[in-house]
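Example 3.2
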Amino acid sequence: MHRSLAWALAALALVPLAACDKADKAATDDAAPKVSSETLTAAIGGTPGLTTVAAALKGTGLANVFDGTAPYTLLAPDDDAFGKLGETGTMLKAPENGAAMASVIKAHVLPGYVTVKDIDAALKAARGKPVRMTTMAGDEVTFVRDGEALSVTAADGSTARVSGSDVAAGNGVAIPVDTVLKKVPSAAEG
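Structure, written as tokens:
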């Protein structure tokens, strides 16, 4: 089991090396997402359904990270995911709660340029066993295929499904997900 996981993780480790060739591959591979020449921050900002996470990047200062040259992958909670948080989601959006929102966002950031296709390849290499990666927050997330759906589970047990197509930019990828993958305090908990 550990050997399969090691091979899957090794395959994912090679993904950032392929980032330089993404634009050329997108032009020739119909299954590849269309790669924008924009930064990841700009690409997310122009994507319907990702307005909350786009605003969070700007409001927390994390936009600077996604405007740089290092490649990152954002498991981007869609607007409905933040809506499911109710009052807690509203609290997170308040400017004075920028640190809490930054913590939530960091729990959704993976190193490197990883697309859904790359995750599927790692799952195939792992012969259907879960594939694990570590987020910018230092937490582990686990990817699995559940029929046609690709799911990701956080260390706290929260699970999200990929809810849209990759948003590919020159320096990273956003993969829309339908749930926020970090337990956040309720407004009452502060």
